[in-house]
Amino acid sequence: MPVILAIESSCDETSVAVCNNGKITANVIANQTIHENYGGVIPELASRVHQQNIVPAVQQALAIAKVNKNELNAVAFTRGPGLLGALLVGVSFAKSFALALDLPLIAVNHMQAHILAHFIDEPTPKFPFLCLTVSGGHTQIVLVKDYFDMEIVGETLDDAAGEAFDKTAKILSLPYPGGPLIDKYAQQGNPLAFKFPEPQIQGLNYSFSGFKTAILYFIRDRQKENPQFIEQNLADICASVQYSIVNILLNKLKKAAKQYDIKEIAIAGGVSANSGLRNALTEMKESLGWNVYIPAFQYCTDNAGMIAIAGYQKFLVGEFVGQDISPMARMNF
């Protein structure tokens, strides 16, 4: 019955979780509001705020889980990918904490952890399954054969879907973070009000750079005709953009499901919290006979709960690392 402390610090959330025999008993997330002033994450500021947040977050997680640090059996942490300075804070703390308590260390791949978040709560997907992993930095279709046997079968060739949401929000002068605001306004708008082009990319790969440019030119041209265009059509613009991005994502996922003859389908990553994506996937579940798995909201965005469950699976097979481990800003499966 291992009790694992997990730390996530890959970007701008300082998160600490406790996993007790495969069950998440605490998942603390400390958000960094300082980046709202700059319209995006400032890496140097992120690492400084991680240093301020990490000790209180650990104390809070242990208190919620009702666990004493001496009852812990291992420390799991995000090794990468992510912002190097931010990762360094989490990795350094995990190594020091584990060294002081003579605990083994478990290094976790952030992107694998997003996928393994599906094993926190029931029902869980059956192997093999396809997982659409969508965040601000990644857009991937992953064939998951086992807990740590994963193959990327499709990915973005340039920008991520999350970037398309964020860039659109910036064009519309929405405050950071803009993705959730687009989702909010989209629910009040007409998704068919405006049509945007779908990138014609072969195979299962994605591209969103041209899509972002198309939105930029569309808004620019409409504002020339009507300076109040954004204010008068905000909900419809958001709904149309969201509808287009969701269609692009799911058309490739549908193609992958057919190609691999798989009906076990999952989504993960920060963008999987988007209501438009969730609703569209639920509709496809009915029409295509898929078994669809969507994590709870708290396990979609960056969080230590997913690091903890990945760490638990690694603990079971004895996959530990030494004190010489270092963070990796770029990290493959």
UniProtKB/TrEMBL annotation:
GO cellular component annotations of the record: cytoplasm
- Its Gene Ontology molecular function terms? iron ion binding; tRNA N(6)-L-threonylcarbamoyladenine synthase activity
**What is the main EC category here?**
transferase
Give a single Pfam family match.
Answer: TsaD
Which reaction(s) are listed as its catalytic activity? L-threonylcarbamoyladenylate + adenosine(37) in tRNA = N(6)-L-threonylcarbamoyladenosine(37) in tRNA + AMP + H(+)
Q: Could you say which cofactors this protein requires? A: Fe(2+)
Query: Which protein, by its recorded name, is this?
Result: tRNA N6-adenosine threonylcarbamoyltransferase
Species source reads Pedobacter frigiditerrae
What are the top taxonomic ranks of the organism?
Answer: Bacteria, Pseudomonadati, Bacteroidota, Sphingobacteriia, Sphingobacteriales
Which gene underlies this protein? tsaD
